[in-house]
Specification:
Layout: E1 11-14, E2 21-28, E3 33-37, E4 44-48, E5 52-56, E6 68-69, E7 82-87, H1 91-94, E8 96-102, E9 108-115, E10 123-134, E11 146-148, E12 154-157, E13 180-184, E14 210-213, E15 218-223, E16 230-234, E17 240-246, E18 261-262, E19 265-266, E20 281-284, E21 293-298, E22 311-315, E23 320-326, E24 332-339, E25 344-349, E26 355-359, E27 363-369, E28 376-383, E29 385-386, E30 393-399, E31 406-408, E32 419-426, E33 432-439, E34 441-442, E35 450-453, E36 456-459, E37 465-470, E38 473-474, E39 482-484, E40 489-496, E41 502-504, E42 508-510, E43 521-527, E44 534-541, E45 545-553, E46 558-566, E47 569-575, E48 583-589, E49 595-601
Parallel strand pairs: 1-30, 29-34
Antiparallel strand pairs: 2-27, 3-4, 4-5, 5-6, 7-8, 8-9, 9-10, 11-12, 12-13, 13-14, 15-16, 16-17, 17-20, 18-19, 21-22, 22-23, 23-24, 25-26, 26-27, 28-30, 31-32, 32-33, 35-36, 36-39, 37-38, 37-40, 40-41, 40-42, 43-44, 44-47, 45-46, 45-48, 48-49
């Protein structure tokens, strides 16, 4: 009892484009968390826009007493407030840290503070020393990010002064600090000195503090702790968000294009004739999509090797996360990783290089990677097993993870017996998933009963397919519910039901009446057999005889006939090129009704 329908086992190897990036809640209880950084130890310092800095200790506990509270000095709301925090590279010895905030008049102030001499978790609020104050013209586009570079200098990202479209063209005005990246030496004379290698120190038309120009609102920049490269997330106007890149060996002086260009697209070219550095990565703004980029970091931690060397950032509006990595040809390739339920205001590193981000709703999240989260499997049972057979089938699909995949136990998934199965599907990275499925038992069709009427065979009942056999061998082309037997012998029939299962009839022996050759016939040969277009009939008779010749299909249909008068030995050519390929039988009868049949094939 063989099931005639067959199924093919398929294991699909599909590697998803999206990365298995996960945001794991690390600490909660903040109000408008807007920045996070470290001081060289296992603590994290979280900036609240209202003017407070809080500490998460090494156990993940948020300390009740703020590290610093300057909310009485800060004009907070919208894009204003306490916006940035940076610890001096020698903080462990000198205790200096720097904040960037908008004061009660809306001006940008970068101020140095010191930690308390008595408690390392408390800053001295009376230790303030103003480094720089910059006039603001509007309430938005304040920048606010401050970082120490690998050269030990303090970098300050300044927005273009606000409004829309930078109508005063502040970003290209080198007599203003707005719309610029500034670079200060805070270890020399107070409040600061100009580094001798700042790019415009010898240009009387450019302020010495300027390191780069042409920024709109650099909302978070960072340095790759391994290479020293600078990455800048610059918020766009109405068309594009951009990520700018400055290699570590740059002497500075880049012009990133705003307001002449938004990303690399012309915006307002009036008076523009400079050399511009266009973004490493550009994201088109869309309705409900990206509209306010939050610059991130190149991951240099150790917990998640899959992320090493990848620059990770997000968009505040769409909540999308993105990733950029080298393309191998000196450029960059970026991709959308996915959308997460958080409005990300900032990214920051721990002292160990692990990556965190702040959610405006009040959380600090750790950026993690779960290689197994993208690995999924499914099983589809494509057929049950016919009763008493092992021809059930199932298809296994594996997605994501790290191919190649292995499945245990190893089975022939085209030939399964009825029953329950449990599989373990593993990828090359050590991730595994268990899948269980059940192969049901399919009933066989009823046993067919062959009816014999002379040399005509038929079967009672309605089945899907039929196959007649002679001597246990399938007769080519004999696939209807009736069959005209051409010779005596044992016949049987295989039938298939609607579920694909088959059953075989008992063998019946058929004796064909009138198959003895006429006495006058000494020889009958058919050549070639099988034939292609014609068949040669050779006869030898002892007396003149008239024969009626017919060629029949297996269903009994007459497909060729003619009369033959034979005397002695003769050869007749039968033109049969009109017949399709198949099995036929030739019938030769005389006037006395004596008949002989021969099976022929084309």
């Amino acid at each position: 009892m063989k099931k005639l329908l067959t199924f093919t086992f398929s294991l699909f190897f599909i590697l998803l484009q999206s990365q298995s990036l996960e945001l794991v809640p690390y600490a909660t209880g903040f109000t408008s968390a807007i920045d996070v950084t470290h001081a060289g130890d296992d603590r994290l310092f979280v900036v609240e826009q209202s003017g407070r800095i809080k500490i998460i200790d090494g156990t993940g506990t948020v300390l009740a007493t703020p590290f610093l509270d300057i909310s009485s000095l800060t004009n907070s709301g919208g894009e204003r407030g306490l916006l940035g925090l940076a610890f001096h590279p020698d903080y462990a010895n000198n205790g200096y840290f720097f904040v960037n905030y908008t004061d009660l008049s809306g001006e940008t102030r970068v101020v140095r503070y010191s930690r308390s001499m008595d408690d390392p978790n408390i800053a001295d609020p009376n230790s303030d020393m103003e480094v720089i104050m910059i006039d603001q013209t509007q309430g938005n586009h304040n920048g606010g990010c401050i970082k120490f570079g690998p050269d030990g200098y303090l970098y300050i990202g300044m927005g273009d002064g606000g409004g829309g479209g930078d109508q005063p063209n502040n970003s290209q005005n080198t007599g203003l600090l707005l719309g610029k990246m500034l670079r200060l030496d805070v270890d020399g004379e107070t409040p600061y000195e100009i580094p001798a290698d700042n790019p415009f120190v010898d240009d009387v038309d450019v302020l010495d503090e300027i390191w780069a120009i042409g920024l709109r609102n650099p909302w978070r920049f960072s340095f790759d702790r391994e290479t020293g490269d600078m990455w800048i997330g610059d918020v766009g106007q109405n068309a594009y968000e951009e990520i700018d890149f400055q290699p570590a060996d740059s002497p500075g002086g880049e012009n990133y294009g705003w307001r002449c260009y938004e990303a690399d697209s012309p915006y307002n070219l009036s008076g523009c004739d400079g050399d511009y550095v266009f973004p490493a990565y550009t994201i088109p703004q869309t309705p409900g999509g990206p509209c306010s980029i939050t610059g991130g970091f190149v991951y240099r931690g150790t917990e998640f090797p899959e992320l090493i060397g990848k620059y990770i950032f997000a968009d505040f509006c769409s909540r999308d996360f993105f990733m950029i990595e080298p393309d191998g040809d000196g450029g960059w390739i970026g991709e959308l990783i996915g959308e997460y339920p958080y409005s990300i205001t900032s990214f920051g590193e721990g002292a160990d290089g692990e990556l965190y981000c702040t959610h405006y709703g009040g959380q600090v999240l750790q950026v993690t990677y779960d290689a197994c989260s993208s690995f999924s499997t499914s099983v589809e049972v494509t057929s049950g097993a016919c009763a008493g057979e092992t021809n059930g089938s199932a298809s296994i699909v594996a997605n994501g993870g790290n191919p190649p995949y292995t499945i245990t136990p190893s089975l022939d998934y085209d030939n399964l017996a009825a029953g329950e199965y449990t599989l373990t599907i593993s990828d090359d990275g050590g991730c595994s998933v268990q899948e269980s499925f059940f192969i049901s038992t399919l009933p066989l069709p009823e046993e067919p009963m062959v009816l014999v009427d002379g040399n005509t065979l038929s079967v009672a009942g309605d089945f899907t397919t039929y196959q007649w056999l002679f001597g246990g061998v399938a007769i080519e082309g004999a696939t209807s519910n009736t069959y005209l037997a051409a010779e005596s012998g044992d016949y049987s029939l295989i039938v298939t039901g609607g579920n694909g299962c088959s059953n075989t009839s008992p063998v019946v022996n058929v004796m064909i009446v009138g198959l003895d050759a006429p006495a006058s016939l000494q020889e009958l040969r058919l050549t070639p057999n099988p034939f292609t277009t014609e068949l040669k009939l050779s006869l030898a008779v002892t007396e003149a005889t008239n024969f009626q010749l017919g060629v029949f299909a297996l269903d009994g249909k007459l497909v060729y006939e003619r009369s033959i008068s034979a005397s002695g030995q003769m050869t007749e050519t039968l033109p049969l090129e009109h017949l399709p390929a198949g099995v036929y039988y030739l019938k030769l009868s005389n006037q006395e009704g004596e008949v002989i049949r021969k099976v022929v094939k084309q």
